[in-house]
Amino acid sequence: MRGQVVSRRVIGSTEEKFVPNPLSLFPILRAARIALQAVKQDAADREVPQGSDRDRVSPITCDPASRALATTLTEYACADRSLLLTGEIGSGKSVLGRLVHQHSAKREGCFVQLSCAGLGNAKSSSGEFDDLVVSQVLARAREGTIFLDEVGDLPKHRQEHLLQWLNCPESKATRVISSTHRDLTGLVERGAFLAALVERLVEASFEVPALRDRPEDIIPLALHFLADVVAAPPVQLSAGAIARLRSYSWPGNVLELRNAIERAVRLAGEQEILTEHLPSEGVSVGRTDRVLRERVDSVKRDAIIKALADRNYNQTHAARHLGPSRRALIYKMEKYGLKPPPGASGR
Question: Is 132 exposed, middle or buried (0-12, 13-18, 19+ CB in 10 A)?
Fold first, then answer.
């Protein structure tokens, strides 16, 4: 025997864990490693308020965009078809996958999350890729839902294994939900993804908006994560911190927001969170040249204003001080919208 399977209840579904037999530790340890990756990713993407009803998933959907998507997915959950959730990493795709499972006919079964990105490193002791790990995960999802997290990162040989499983009669009892931040069509065109697998996985597709595209979710999510990190007494967000949270673009989405709140609590010493405790917007590569030009122009403009003011707005004397000709100075003044005040000589 490989071990005993023990069921337990977690948020959104029933999940299972193995109690291993000491004689078969190695395949179980590999399965545990992948399960741990899935749990970590799920925790990173989590938007689930911690309530007394731990069998329900309630994504925070205060923004009209996220609320509309959650409503659509809830209605679609009754259709026993495979679906793909697209969107940036950390945008909360796994939470919405749980929401679909919760409202589907498979809700009494397990919701099993498989992190596809880490499967390429799962090797057996002989050096060959061991399909036993994946087989065990798929078996646990029978009569429930398998969530293929970031399926676009699935190695080619795993794609073949998954397609074989999807074509088997035993897979019919499992609801398949996938997520990806990649363009699967583009991967197929480059020969990096099986076209037949896309056909099986994508009977319907929904895009999960990035956090910056659903701004009304930012503060409720931040407050939820804050309550999750600090039980009591509650930590407050200053007005500046709230403004920073709203203005920041959150390229890392919900995952970055959660990490930022946890870091801010540590920096603030569990006191009020201030602006300086939160990430600031950096200058992107695409904006560097424009920002640099703006700063140089600002320095030049200030230098001209000072030179003119110090010389009673005498353009000849100011030009002699600054270096260029009077004609060049007048051109710069026109460029920057500078005019001599009334009564100044201007000569």
Answer: middle
pTM: 0.64
Distance CA 69, CA 96 (A): 9
For residue 41, give both structure tokens: 């990713």
Give dist(CA 308, CA 100) in Å, integer: 68
343: tokens are 């009564």
Task: Using alpha carbons, list the distances in angstroms from residue 152 to 42, 57, 182, 205, 210.
Answer: 17, 25, 6, 14, 18
Report which of 222, 34, 238 is spatially closest to residue 120, judged by C-alpha positions: 34
Instruction: Determine what percent of the chain falls in helix, strand and coil, rounding each to the nearest 5.
Output: 55, 15, 35
> What DSSP designation does 113 have?
E
Per-residue pLDDT of the chain (347 residues; tens, 9 = 90+): 444 444 444 333 444 443 444 444 444 444 444 444 444 444 433 333 333 234 456 789 999 999 999 999 999 998 888 999 999 999 999 999 999 999 999 999 999 998 887 775 544 444 333 466 677 778 888 889 999 999 999 988 889 888 988 998 888 889 999 999 999 999 999 999 999 999 999 999 999 999 999 999 999 999 999 988 876 667 889 999 999 999 999 999 999 999 999 999 988 887 899 999 999 875 444 444 555 566 566 667 777 877 887 788 888 888 888 877 888 888 788 777 777 665 565 66
Find the length of the chain.
Answer: 347
